[in-house]
Predict the 3D structure of the following.
Amino acid sequence: MSFNLMITHEPGLDNYRFVIGSLRSLIKDYQVIDKGPCVILIKVSDPYQAIENLRGIVKEAPMVYRVIPIDTIVDPYVEDVAEKASELTLARIPPDKTYRVTLHGRLYWRETRMPAHSMDAIRVIAEKIDRQVSLTHPDYVVYVRSVKLYHRRRYATITVTMPEKIIVSKSEKP
């Protein structure tokens, strides 16, 4: 399991082909790790450089929803995500900067294996991060997304970056 870029798009084979064609023309060294109806998981040499390369094409391609660099992948347990997110934020977010946690998908409690409510999961993740929270205008975003790899095993991806480093075409919030 080694992917570091996620592209979400409208469902459909034509949309998938368009995204892959764009990758082929803009990023020479990539490998598709897995794909779902609306998600493509990709391995590239530098996900943040890939974001810059893809930024122009996304403006012209309304079928692409998001292009997300991925810093790390962990099991989809709230406790694991909180621990890893805390490590990444201490390394990447300066003490005087603000952040917000954005969660897409389902996380689970380690002990019971039961689904965690999104607000409870965000609260636990945020409690581990020693930085100021700003929900409206954060300097950084801790973006957590739950994905299924090979349609079987669920993982949580974590990205800690400035909001403008995540390409979002359908809404203004990453």
Q: What stands out?
A: The beta strands are 5-9, 30-35, 39-44, 64-69, 72-74, 98-104, 132-133, 140-149, 153-161, 167-168.
